[in-house]
Amino acid sequence: MTFKRLGLVFLALVVLAAVFHRPLVFRFTRYFIARGAQQQNLELRYEIDGSIFTSLRIRNLVGTPTESGPVERLEIGSLRLEYSLWGLIRQGLPGFLESAALVDVQVVIDPAKNLPPEKAREEQSFKFPALIPRELVIQNLNFTARRPAEDLVIENFHLQFDPQRAGFVRAALIQLPGFQTWRDFNAEARYTNRDLVLQNFRLGAGVEVARLNLDMSRLSEDVLAFGFAGTLFGGATEASGKIDDLNESSVLTVEAKSAGLSLAEAAAYFQIEAPLRGTLAALDLRLKGEVANPQTWSGAVEVRVTDFVMQKQVALDTAALRIEIADGKALVRSFDLAQAVNQITGSAEIDLPPTFDGFSKLDATGKLDAKLENLASISAGSASGAATATGTFALAAGQPSADLRVQADHVNFGKGEVNDADLRLQLGKNSTP
Fold this sequence. Notes:
- The chain is built from five helices and 24 strands.
- It is mainly beta.
- The chain has a 24-stranded mixed β-sheet that branches.
- α1 runs antiparallel to α3 (85-91).
- The longest helix has 18 residues, at 22-39.
- The protein is elongated, with a radius of gyration of 29 Å.
């Protein structure tokens, strides 16, 4: 038996001993609740009862701010927990909580109002909770987070995850500031052995979800699985994967495919200012590695975009990209940009950084070959003729450079012209003479 199991058995024996001292357990419970509230500058009033051995219920909880702090309002009509000590012994924390029911909740917070320095705690990184109930019910949850321009708001939220009955997720209003607002949200749900499946719902124009899956049945093994199937901005999309060693190294394995996604609809949905048009004709992604460490990633990505236009200036018939990822590098095996008779092809090697922050200062080298048979079509008529360009390009700590040989028999631009050109262009401060 592992030390972890021995620890859980010892914890269970302590709880069993406490069963015979019910008033003492209630007193300890009140102490820890009060201590947590005090950290948030709150004074709590509530009623508590239950069998202690299998359940605990808190009713009519009201939190009153005692001084400045982020919590403006906290009210809970009822919170009921049912749990299993035997499940705790056998499966650890994932097997402890049997059911949870939360009724009539009102929460208002203002994140801008910080706690006093003596009560503020160091921010903790997000950890996926291990205490996932086998049955979960939420009735009438209301939440508001103050924001300078627009509040984050959830109104009249209801949720039922029950292995014995059809489930659902409903909300009168979900308002995400600066992004989207959804009214009368409604999704079907199935929930068996902590495997959650949401079905048949929309998240605004362009996002239709046929199936969204979150499998929490293997949390005792530190594994979380997920899946998605639906239509994103006109494109049929599927994704599946899992996270191993959850909350520690968090090794992600994911596969995704999409075809027919409209870039213009996606840009409008996510409120991206740069006008984009085109169609993601094909996406095929396979990736594995520690989420926070790009140097551990491995896999492959293939992308093909058709009729791509950006800022009404760059227009391509097709753009294709093939990348292989391994050993701390992203190898761009090929990129192909085509517009009528104009074509740019090439390859590149990118050194992956140890953290996400490193993507702003990448190191990379590459080669390109451009055959531009019609300069007028890529310059909005400001130039005409034909040219070729071959050479190398690079990134050094995120700073670009290029060394190109450009050749042309005859090119017109504005009032000037060039004949029999054979030029070497060195661009960027990292270029070499």
